[in-house]
């Protein structure tokens, strides 16, 4: 980052001397006011619940222009990566900062392939769960448990440990998600097959059985790979910020990623794709498109606490470019599977059209986000609704790891420890029990 010749001066009406704060510029996007010395100079904190105006770090990985609806991974537009590259190339880009050539890509993919198996002991963790346990409960447990098997790669300050932990996590997340699914349907776990692609191997572990050969459908393989790429990273979103804050204590990478899995689960974040599909199914069950007007009135009624899931975004105040690509993927998959008339897809498109013409949404700049169509395409592929967020976590692991490693390598990084505005009781003395 570069020191700007612009300065910020904070003046106070209580007679406190004005304070001058340095301003820094990045390569693109808003400048930042450096407030690190503010408390020392003023005795005051800044106040920004939800971090609407706060940069927690400097980063070179992902950039979003919310007004333009632009998403760049290391400078490359998501539209180009999702259509011209695959998830392995995207992982390499996020981790190392460049798109690999053919030989580097082959070496990276081979390295990942040779870490796709998990220790045989891992399967016994699943036996402790009920068969109907939510896959994100299982994933939160399994990812954290990985740290129990890899004591040779848990020192986050060791660059070699960080490298092997990154490969292990990217390699093993599909295996763990597929194990969570197989456990829920009472089928045997399927081991990885190294001759398959990353996406093809995931589909194999999910849908193959020992009873007969399983042939990967190339249209589905391409679709799931694109879903992985679209979800791979997204600046300092809630789960990535969780991974950074957790990792800032020096804990091992597996524990930090497990914290990200737990955060992503929430319906306001990665859990929105599951919530969005449930919303569509409820509208469909209550009458479908004829009931959309009634549903929208509920959404606009503040007291209903009903939200149009898959709509709105903290940063995008224009179309989420991932939603456009996800809708295209939806079309491709539904056509390939002969499901063009999928009622939920038609319902989603009707909802989107109505919302984009309604002043409530237009005035609040609420557009479809990545979660609005992702559930429909995953459901068409045969992925159960409860597994959608697990697949989001699988895909986001590359971004989480890249962001964690960037933080650890940043000379300015410290353990994260926000302050507060205290509104509780001033000091008071304990009264004896008989006097209370
Ligand atoms: C993801 O941060 C990331 O990058 C996340 C993510 C990633 O890749 O990591 O992009 C993934 O989490 C996408 C978002 C998935 N969540 C949902 O689809 C859930 C529904 N969306 C909302 O919960 C909401 O839009 C958020 C949480 C996504 C954003 O919330 P903000 O930025 O805090 O905005 P807000 O809640 O303050 O909303 C502003 C206004 C409010 O109304 P007013 O108080 O101004 O009257 O818009 C309304 C909100 O009530 N609003 C909605 C709405 N989203 C916002 N009203 C109805 N339906 C919605 N979906």
Low-confidence stretches: none
Secondary-structure element order, as H and E? EEEHEEEHHHHHHHHHHHHHHHHH
Mean pLDDT value: 94
As laid out across the biggest beta sheet, the strand order is 1-2-3
Based on DSSP secondary structure assignment, what is the total number of beta strands? 6
The hetero molecules present are: s-citryldethia Coenzyme A
Please indicate the percent range of residues in DSSP E strands (runs of 2 or more). Answer: 5-15%
Taking the sheet with the most strands, its summary is:
3 strands, antiparallel
Which overall shape is indicated by the principal axes computed on the Cα atoms?
globular
Content-based structural category = mainly alpha
Total of helices = 18
**N-C termini distance:** 57 Å
Helix content: 40-55%
**Rg estimate, integer Å:** 24 Å
